[in-house]
Structure prediction request, 208 residues.
Amino acid sequence: MNEKGTEFRGFFGGAGYDRLANVMGMGPSYYDAAIGELNLPEGAEVLDLGCGTGSLGIALAKRYGAVSQVRGVDISDDQLRHARNKSEEVSCPFSFYNCSMDELDFPDSTFDVVVTSMALHETPSAVRRGAIREVSRVLKTGGVFVLIEWSRPRFGLLGMLWLPFLFFGDWRDNWNNRYAELCLEQGLSREHDSYINSLARRQVFVKK
Ligand SMILES: C[S@@+](CC[C@H](N)C(=O)[O-])C[C@H]1O[C@@H](n2cnc3c(N)ncnc32)[C@H](O)[C@@H]1O
Prediction:
């Protein structure tokens, strides 16, 4: 991990990432469940933090015709290159930026929806906190933040498969789901909380 987080590159980036993610239970049905049901305004502006190869934003744009643009940020050029290629199949415009999620170069109140999937835990504690501050800044009032992260695993094959990985790095925010408090501190109140599999927890916050 560098000072901003783990950059997924080489074997772990691009098409290789997608293959591994699929094996680890993050295939199309994962991204569908991660999006869940959202009430989007017409012309919705979407931001994906730690977008990786863009799978979440692409699934979202395919499902909701109301989306006018999706932007994704990641610190890995390998991931962003593959995301750009994949997004060419989708009619909705996509833009990808190499930038850390705690230093967003977007004006205040730009987005209707910010999403993030399995990326916060790849960053150091200070970056996670900075990212949640940034989410609150760039979201419009009434905008939603969809946060998917692993949390204390429930029983099930997937939970068991992941268990060894959960003991690397600083996992306390995830295990104890500190994200709910961190979001609340930034004016984001939780409207939804559920597991989408034995490990991945989907929480939806609204900026009041
Ligand atoms: C496990 S992958 C998840 C990718 C994608 N969100 C998904 O669900 O498939 C974590 C991603 O976070 C990126 N990342 C790590 N630290 C970051 C940071 N500080 N800012 C933005 N992206 C970061 C990595 O390069 C990697 O692509």
About this structure: The longest strand covers residues 139-150. The pocket of S-adenosylmethionine is lined by residues 4-8, 21, 26, 50-52, 55-56, 73-76, 79, 100-101, 117-119, 122-123, 127 (CB under 6 Å). The mean pLDDT is 94.
